[in-house]
Amino acid sequence: MTTLAILTAAGSGTRLGRDLPKALVELGGLPLVLHAARRLAASGVVDGLVVTAPAGLAAVVTEVVARDPHIEVPVRVVEGGATRQASVATGLRMARAADDVVLVHDAARPLVPPSLVRRVVEAVRSGHRAVVPGLPVTDTIKQVIPGPGAELVVGTPDRSLLRAVQTPQGFERGLLVRAHEAGAVRAAAEHLAATDDAGLVEALGEKVHIVPGDDLAFKITTERDLWLAELVLQEAA
Ligand SMILES: Nc1ccn([C@@H]2O[C@H](COP(=O)(O)OP(=O)(O)OP(=O)(O)O)[C@@H](O)[C@H]2O)c(=O)n1
Ligand SMILES: C[C@](O)(CO)[C@H](O)COP(=O)(O)O
Question: Domain containing 173: what range?
Answer without folding.
Answer: 2-134+165-236
